[in-house]
Write a structure and sequence with these properties.
8 helices; five-stranded antiparallel beta sheet; 324 residues; nucleotide-binding; alpha+beta
Length: 324
């Protein structure tokens, strides 16, 4: 197991930031931590890194214990064999690209084949010709690629990424996302990735950790979380789900599963709603409607009129039921 977290807790005074966290990752897997602000995802990342001291529990990296609350043992951050990538790049402005990447190797006194390792890392992030430049001479996307190269050059056992793409525009974000995934795959690196972007988490991760109020609501594959949420919070937090009252618990229907105006099959379920508003989104309109006292959302190819009564249909198997 590349990363194992058992019964991890962290409190700040009377405030419980992490409560009984249990996670495990295999070699080469990427886990995305997502959840609302203050849910504990950054505290969890900092605890794995050694920047926070948990109150109890255990953390193992590659079967080696780096924190054990029962034994009161905690390995220093520099000895955990981690690579880290931050939102703000965290590059030394007075050092060249080459020296920024080499910095971690020199600090560890791990200088064997240093030149080859730095140049290999530069090649992987497609910056081979930028070695002598300074951070101020680079774009935001290029600076983030340097920070990725710095993280992988030490051959870490685990990479921690704290919202690494949030400072980039949409085009750059997409480019760096693909590059990062390729680098992780090529090097068989295990990674924990904090993001506030649900789409980013679902498209990049092998496993997604949905956190809420310091707890893990669900830890599963992106597909399982999207199609089989285990709690009302997960169903509402990931994507847009429309809620149906259900005596056995709660039931939800994803907005993309709703078909306005006409049923596709004879056994489709029918709902009636009153249009509240519609927003043009390029390929379609995102429509908000009142259905049985609930605000529902769905896609439509044409703009409906506010106040218009509309029929919506969905297949029975598309209803997601959560039993309380």
């Amino acid at each position: 197991m590349s990363l194992s977290i058992k019964n991890l807790n962290k409190s700040f005074g009377d405030v419980s930031a992490l409560r009984d966290i249990n996670l495990s990752l295999n070699q080469g897997e990427l886990a995305a931590l997502v959840g609302p602000s203050g849910c504990g995802k950054t505290t969890l990342l900092r605890s794995i890194a050694g920047l926070e001291h948990p109150s109890s529990g255990q953390i193992k990296i590659n079967e080696r214990s780096v924190f054990d609350g029962e034994l009161n043992e905690s390995i220093a951050i520099q000895d955990r064999k981690l690579g880290m990538v931050f939102q703000d790049f965290a590059l030394w402005p007075h050092l060249t690209v080459y020296e920024n990447i080499a910095f971690g190797l020199r600090a560890r006194k791990d200088t064997k084949d240093l030149d080859k390792r730095v140049n290999d890392a530069l090649a992987q992030v497609q910056l081979a010709s930028f070695a002598k430049r300074f951070p101020s001479q680079l774009s935001g996307g290029q600076q983030q690629r340097v920070s990725i190269a710095r993280a992988i050059v030490t051959k870490p056992q685990l990479i921690l990424l704290d919202e690494p793409l949030s400072a980039l525009d949409a085009v750059l974000k997409d480019q760096i996302q693909h590059l990062l995934l390729q680098i992780l795959k090529d090097n068989q690196l295990t990674a924990v990735y904090v993001t506030h972007d649900q789409a980013e988490a679902m498209s990049m991760a092998d496993k997604v950790v949905i956190m809420n109020a310091g707890q893990v609501e669900q830890f599963d594959s992106p597909e399982a979380i999207y199609h089989h949420p285990k709690s009302e919070f997960v169903a509402q937090f990931i994507g847009k789900s429309n809620r149906l009252p259900s005596p056995q618990g709660h039931a939800f229907i994803r907005m993309e599963k709703l078909k306005p105006h006409a049923a596709a099959n004879d056994n489709d379920l029918q709902f009636e709603g009153s249009i509240i508003n519609a927003r043009f989104q390029g390929q379609h309109y995102l429509v908000e409607a009142n259905v049985a006292g609930e605000k529902w959302h769905f896609f439509a190819s044409q703009r409906p009129t506010p106040g218009e009564v509309i029929s919506l249909y969905c297949a029975p198997e598309d209803i997601q039921r959560i039993h309380l």
